[in-house]
Amino acid sequence: MSHGKMEELRGRLDSVNLQLLELLSERARIAQEIGQEKEKQGVPKYDPVREKKMLDELVALNKGPFDNETIRHLFKQVFQASLKLQQTDHVKHLLVSRKRHKEDTVVSVGDIAVGGGKPILVAGPCSVESYEQVRKTAAVLKASGISVMRGGAFKPRTSPYDFQGLGVEGLKILKEVASEFGLKTISEIVDPAHVELACEYIDVIQIGARNMQNFELLKAAGDVRTPVLLKRGLAATIDEFLHSAEYIVSRGNTQVMLIERGIRTYERATRNTLDISAVPILKLESHLPVLVDVTHSTGRKDIMGPCARAALAAGADGVMVEVHPDPATALSDAAQQMNFDEFRRFLEEVGLQA
Ligand SMILES: [Mn+2]
């Protein structure tokens, strides 16, 4: 082939590309108009019957050289791109996304601001076991300048034979002790039917890792106005985590905090693997406050200090740890809860006291 011929063919190709571009843009504008009409009529944007009919007609008219499969594939791409154009912002970007809301969301737990620039520390026993146990812990928290206490009343345990928590009795103990010491409380709720009741006793509803995709529970938490602490599932991607938060926010409860608590990997040196990169990624992708649970992610008291510092260095809005008056006798997570001396040393190491 002569050089001139090649140049001529390339010129024709360029011109066809331009025509295709114009036609594709023209098609996109028509699709947008159709989308607006459908919006007015309240009918779904995606119409699989119509799409199949268009594809079948195109294939029937196909004279080659592309085979029918290729024609189907190419037009399918065009259809999908058009459908994306028709979709509203609502579908393209989640409410929890930074793209929808540039500023950081500050969650108010009473007079405590979470996500406002000053990191918080949440501490307390794994489980509420007794009034005395919670009271002793609360006194130490108060003396250390900690304002938010955690304590599990409904415990989702791996084994049905393990301690399942005190239930509503546990919530009552939390409320009584918290009002005595002027603390705010966080406790996990596992049943959608308990969400409203829980709001009477606690300041933050925790949704645990095992329930991150319990969609009925997420919806129930979205229907109240009590702040929610949503834990990342042990095998959940960041995208799945954010979609779970979206369940809550889309129901009207904007007061959601995310908490990384370790994910399951092959590594056995820690209970789970603390995904520290999740912190800056969540902060980039979402406007919600991000906390890190160093107790359940590591399961090791000897590295909680460095991990908490890493979390804060990565931009976390807070850290959560478990502390117990006598971890050896704790009814759950005995090995990883700190005693009061260990807790005080931890605070010094991390520098989070008020
Ligand atoms: Mn625990």
How would you portray this structure in words?
By secondary structure, the chain is α/β, with parallel strands linked by helices. It has two domains: 3-92, Chorismate Mutase Domain, subunit A; 107-350, TIM Barrel. Helix content is 45%, strand content 12%. The strands form two sheets. The protein has an eight-stranded parallel beta barrel with strand order 3-4-5-6-7-8-9-10, surrounded by six helices. The protein has a two-stranded antiparallel ribbon with strand order 1-2. The longest helix is centred in the first third of the chain and has 39 residues, at 3-41. It is elongated, with a radius of gyration of 27 Å. It starts with a helix and ends with a helix. The structure holds manganese (II) ion. Manganese (II) ion binds next to loops.
